[in-house]
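Quick one: structure tokens for this chain, please?
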Amino acid sequence: MVTTGLEEIGLLISGYLCLRNWQSQYISGGRAVWLLFAIAMFAFFVGNLWFCLWELRWGLDPAASAGNPFFVLFYLILIAGMRLAILDRDVQLARQQWVIVVSVATVGLMIGCWLTTLSARAVIVPPTITAIVQKESAGTIMAEINLPLIPPQPTHQHSTTTSRERPPEWVLAINRSMQPLINTFNLFYVLCDLVLLTFAAILFLGFWGGQLGLPWRMTAQAVLCFYIADTWFAYANNQVQGYESGFIMEVFWVFGIVQFGIAAALEFDNSIRARRLARRRTAI
């Protein structure tokens, strides 16, 4: 719950800072990039809110929440923004740098294939009739051996209360419609993470060194943090039985969101400084 709250606050602040860069006249070029980043942050905010409601309020599988369409929108818009940032600034890399980019993409592809394999193995196979009969017969024998010598107590219905309220019918309907698409969404997220990781490597190497390139290095680091958090969640969701969000590794989502906001603030500050220096030179 604390991690989700920090994420939501960070998304609102980062989205506002990116939106300010788009509206600011001080940003000389690439304002459309910051508009795309702002829309991506707000889409993540809405999707994360549905994710939290699905898991914490209604006790449903968050992988089948109504936030999936917003997460898809987040990935698509963020990829478009990263691509536009690379094209607008005409990033040129040396051969050695392209080797690093290809290596990063290869490692990301291997991890994506591994996660896809884990997802395929996580499919629950129904037990055979023989196994069910053997299990029931063994349970009956053990129950007869350990039969308690106390009279049965009367049962009271509704004696236990749950802290989670029953989901409305429209929530259950959405949950049922999303359940068959969970593996499709997971595969889509893995592919998008691979594309984002490649774009992040290009941005990081293309803007290596210098104060003006710092916002884009921060943007690349933010994407890397998203990749780490997404990879952990995909692994835990397949391998850790009964996994609930809030593990320490999910703090990388918070790191990524914060770094997007810092990148937007640095770009705004650099643009103001550049305008002031230009005015001083013209005045002289």
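Residues 98 and 254 are 29 Å apart (CA to CA).
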